[in-house]
TrEMBL record:
GO terms under cellular component: nucleus
Keywords carried by this UniProt record: DNA-binding, Nucleus, Transcription, Transcription regulation
Top-level lineage group: Eukaryota
Chain intervals for the UniProt region annotation (Disordered): 26-89, 147-177
Classification via PROSITE patterns: BHLH
Protein name: BHLH domain-containing protein
Polar residues composition-biased segments: 26-36
Residue span, BHLH domain: 83-134
One Pfam family from the record: bHLH-TF_ACT-like_plant
Segments of skewed composition (Basic residues): 65-76
Length: 303
């Protein structure tokens, strides 16, 4: 239909034109639309646009790619966690195997009387008792050896009064009689009595007189090993036990060896809650003060 015919039909005049728009996105597209303007200035938009659908498809493709990469990372993290778990299981299995082998060897080295049951705690506890018995036996043999050496050297039995005095003869020195008794059981004592001259240990600061005993304390966590070498005194062992209990030091093992006028105490103690002794020096100082009181009581009783 021509424009003249439309005009003769009484319709308002209008203009018709085509527009072509180009969209730029991940995929280039082309869209066309038609606009109709009537005489009143109103626009009527019609036609088809393909740019919106193409952009939507491009966004969906990009989102799928991101989801795939996220799945790959999650899968890799799961593999790493599984590898770590398997490694931990292998290490733990190897540790248990070695522990069982060591416990079996330890059990074979001990008499059956020291093992009440076959569990790990019983084996370890029996090993502790067995080691303490061996230590006591070694101390006893050391005392017997020293006595025999003194007899062979023709030297009178040692006493606290002649512990460090007098000259050393070549014969006694060759037999090692004048070496400090039980020297192998003392490494770095906090208080030196018989070992002070040989190792030049400092005397206690709170005492004007020389130390009354060799005292060495080693501490691991809440368990301490105590060695005391002192002259024999009346009721000394009972007073030491009571004094340690008052200090909240529970005695787990106790052994003693006598040599002439001396006695060697070997104790294993546990530091209980509420004990104010936190270091080896504190424990050694408390034991030395205890021995000073025992010595003072013995002196007063003798007078």
């Amino acid at each position: 239909m021509t424009l003249e015919a439309l005009a003769s039909a009484g319709l308002p005049p209008f203009f018709f034109y085509d527009t072509i728009t180009a969209t730029t996105s991940h995929h280039s597209g082309r869209a066309s639309s038609s606009r109709f303007h009537n005489a009143g200035g109103d626009d009527v938009v019609g036609g088809y646009s393909g740019g919106t659908d193409e952009r939507r498809q491009s966004a969906e493709v990009a989102g799928q790619g991101r989801r795939k990469r996220r799945r790959q990372r999650t899968h890799k993290n799961k593999e790493d966690a599984e590898n770590q778990r398997m490694t931990h299981i292998a290490v733990e299995r190897n540790r248990r195997r070695q522990m069982n082998e060591h416990l079996a060897v330890l059990r074979s080295l001990m008499p059956d009387s020291y093992i009440q049951r076959g569990d790990q705690a019983s084996i370890v506890g029996g090993a502790i008792d067995f080691v303490k018995e061996l230590e006591q036996l070694l101390q006893s043999l050391e005392a017997q050896k020293r006595t025999l050496q003194q007899r062979e050297a023709g030297k009178p039995e040692s006493s606290p009064a002649t512990a460090d005095g007098g000259s050393r003869s070549s014969s006694s020195h060759s037999h090692g009689v004048d070496s400090p008794p039980f020297a192998q059981f003392f490494t770095f004592p906090q208080y030196g009595w018989r070992h002070a001259a040989a190792h030049n240990y400092p005397q206690p600061e709170d005492q004007l007189l020389p130390a009354l005993a060799d005292i060495e304390v080693t501490l691991i966590e809440t368990h301490a090993n105590v060695r005391i070498l002192s002259p024999k005194r009346p009721h000394q062992l009972v007073k030491i036990v009571c004094g340690l209990q008052d200090l909240k030091l529970s005695i787990l093992h106790l052994g003693l060896t006598t040599l002439d006028a001396m006695v060697l105490y070997s104790l294993s103690v546990k530091v209980e809650e509420g004990c104010h002794l936190a270091t080896v020096d504190d424990i050694a100082a408390a034991i030395h003060r205890m021995l000073c009181l025992i010595q003072a009581e013995a002196t007063a009783a003798a007078q």
